[in-house]
Amino acid sequence: xxxxxxxxxxxxxxxxxxxxxxxxxxxxxxxxxxxxxxxxxxxxxxxxxxxxxxxxxxxxxxxxxxxxxxxxxxxxxxxxxxxxxxxxxxxxxxxxxxxxxxxxxxxxxxxxxxxxxxxxxxxxxxxxxxxxxxxxxxxxxxxxxxxxxxxxxxxxxxxxxxxxxxxxxxxxxxxxxxxxxxxxxxxxxxxxxxxxxxxxxxxxxxxxxxxxxxxxxxxxxxxxxxxxxxxxxxxxxxxxxxxxxxxxxxxxxxxxxxxxxxxxxxxxxxxxxxxxxxxxxxxxxxxxxxxxxxxxxxxxxxxxxxxxxxxxxxxxxxxxxxxxxxxxxxxxxxxxxxxxxxxxxxxxxxxxxxxxxxxxxxxxxxxxxxxxxxxxxxxxxxxxxxxxxxxxxxxxxxxxxxxxxxxxxx
Length: 410
Ligand code: 6LC
Fold this sequence. Notes:
Elements: H1 2-10, E1 12-16, E2 35-40, E3 46-51, E4 54-59, E5 63-65, H2 67-76, H3 82-88, H4 92-100, H5 102-114, E6 123-127, H6 133-141, E7 146-151, H7 155-165, E8 172-176, E9 188-193, H8 206-216, E10 217-224, E11 227-235, H9 238-244, H10 260-268, E12 272-275, E13 287-293, E14 304-312, E15 317-330, E16 340-343, E17 355-366, E18 371-380, E19 388-396, E20 400-408
Parallel strand pairs: 6-7, 6-9, 7-8, 9-10
Antiparallel strand pairs: 1-2, 1-5, 2-3, 3-4, 11-13, 11-15, 12-17, 14-18, 15-16, 15-17, 18-19, 19-20
Bound molecules: ligand 6LC.
């Protein structure tokens, strides 16, 4: 009785900001507007809650605190986090990181250079131009009739100066504003952008590119990149595992293993960004699990994207997790011309994206010829529009089965 009373006191009321379908018996399904009672905030992502007498886990990011407080919160919290997002692109740190990435920047330069003849008299839009590097390459290496360099962050003011400083103001027009909101005097022949995030889609800048395509690209116009793929490989991650998990086995000769569940929660719940996987850590050849066609992809398709994989283990080792990266292709403007590719995988030149590591809860020993198969889904967070959850299902030789969801970032 006493315990129950205490329990009631600590229960908090939350309103669902969006519908959710639980994917196992432990998870509650609910509809937008449902009032849920939260009994325990078991982790930052999953809470133990109750709806109409039924209890289960619910994703915390779908909930909004109590009705009255909720209204205020809704006003303050922007699901696109524009202020934070464009605020960070208003400083030099990220632009320095992107510009210092030679493989990334040189690939765009190569795309312009190898298509320079065909770009003559073409109208180009550079979406999210940052410091204007791609627009400047266009003006310097080709003779477009006009380049619209669109940038929402305050960097645009400097970009204008850089365009002038480099004598490109005749050709390049910097437009400060979100691509969704700006007006252009004409439609464009080429829409170029560097929109790819971690695991390809994180940040979902791709949505802005698709909207700009539908609004501003001429019939028959060209998208750069023209297609994108997400690659995956089962891998070893010995040092990361040793530093974060095996460490607790015997620090200073003591048994700290009771901390391992905490370590798992803290280090393996979310994917590890900026992980560099060595080619020898790949247990199999990689597989393209998703393929996006930038001409036909629709904004609504981004809500959930699924892919399948089937790998054959090439050498015995420890299967610690999956590593993911992307590649993009830029088609040639000339019929039959070779496309240019940017590959951010372990067998290509390193880039600032590095790779993304998804750690399993427990490592699995594998042997040559073992089969690892399964599926991947990228489910966009219905509230936080720049975030998503990556879910992996896998089996080893059709028997050892696992499934794990990784929030990126909420
Ligand atoms: C590129 C990001 C740049 O694109 C950065 O300068 C940001 O302010 C700009 N940007 C992003 N979305 C928009 C938009 N809708 N309209 C105008 N500018 C935008 C690198 N980021 C990734 N590749 N992820």
